[in-house]
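Sequence only, no structure available. Ideas?
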Amino acid sequence: MDDSLAERRAEALADVYAPAEDTRLLAEAAVEHVGSDDRVLEVGVGSGFVAARVAEATGASVVGSDINPEACRAARERGVPTVRADLVAPFRDGAFDVVLFNPPYLPTPPEVEREDWMERALSGGPDGRRVVDPFLGGVKRVLAPGGRVFLLVSTLTGLDAVREHARENGLAVAPEPLREESFPFERLVVLEITEEHQTP
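Reply:
I predicted one. Tokens follow.
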């Protein structure tokens, strides 16, 4: 790889959210609860770390989506089939048994937001739910019967508000998280979400 190509690749990867504690937590939950016959979508696939790990560990069929073209490229380089998409928009009804999502969840005042891909990967808007809410509004459509959503959020995002918004969209959140981990200023949780009439 010549120097200019290496520089361009490094710049592109700087626009992709790197795997961190939240990434690992979602991957662990998914590996534990995804079956080999499941059709899995990871929304906001980022670097492809979670999707690749799930595919390798479970044998499930996994695809990714991301609005960031550099993330799509990074995930494909990890071997994850990836579509550039806004949340679940291009996917057919009932296509997936499991949908994974580690959304931008950090509450961010408008005056400190920037217009770049890394900001979009981190900022959840003033209440932390700018992307979570529309995701919950649309994900039910792509779930197969008995389908499940594994959503990673922070206590900073307002767990009660996430549960309420899920309920308003015909979804139910299991009483206990699949995984959780505490940090000095927040607790990260992986919520299991199903259609409301099902028992998670």
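The beta strands are 39-43, 61-66, 82-84, 96-101, 143-154, 171-173, 179-183, 186-195.
Hope that gets you unstuck.
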